[in-house]
Every structure is written in structure tokens, then in C-alpha cells.
Amino acid sequence: MLRQLLMEWVVRQRWKKIQVPPDYEVQTYLRKIPEYFDPSKASDRRLIVVYEFHDSGANDGAWTVAIADGKCTLLKGGADVYDTIMYMTADVYRRILMGRLDFARLAYSTGAVRFFGNSLGHRELNEYLTLPKNADVAAL
Hints:
By secondary structure, this protein is an alpha+beta fold. Helices cover 35% and strands 21% of the residues. It has a 5-stranded mixed sheet. β1 and β2 form a beta hairpin. The chain is globular.
């Protein structure tokens, strides 16, 4: 019982530290992906992940993250060839950024994020990123 209360307190403290305003632009955070990319973790890997946002007003649209030859690029728009497409609202992405929606367990199983292609592409992409302590995000 005490352990559970302590864990809940730790999670609440982390939530207080990571704040993403409700009227944010997804591109602000997506542009951090190439910045936090660690080429030593993905030297021989090729991966294309498309983030597609719907029902989000100004945030609607698609962004493509491409990893190849140890480089990571972010392009506005979708891709014809991809490993993963993640289809979600900007609010769902906001909760993923803040760590309030556990991507691995909840986002997929509850249908908050719909996948086309390999559903593990986003998890793999986050393995290639090194988030600094002052990143103010739980995942990208």
C-alpha cells in the first residue's frame, strides 16, 4: 500500500514538471526528433515513421521521420513507403509528450493511436533518441 502511494506521488511530481500547453503546435515537438537523434544507436537501421494528426484544427496534417545511413530527417507531409503510420489527434500526442498516456500500454490498446504497418515503429524510433534531462518531454 505504501509503495503504491509512493509511486503515485512520484508520477504526479513528474507530471508537474512536464507541461505542454493545450494550444501547442505539434511541429514544435516533432522538430526535436532529429535534434535528439543519436546516430550511434541506429547506424545501420532504416526506418520511416509517419505522424498523422486529425481532428486537431491547425495541427492537422502529416509529418514523416526518416532514418537512414545514420541520419534523421523530418519532412512535412506523408510518405508512400513507410514502416509505421501513427494516426491520432494532437491532444493524444500532447498526453504522450507529457507522459500522461503510457504509449506502450495504453495508447495502442485503447485505440487512442491507430497504426498502419508495424505498430512497434514508434517505440523503435524512441530507442534511437537520447532525451536530455531538460527536454521537458517523456517521449516523442
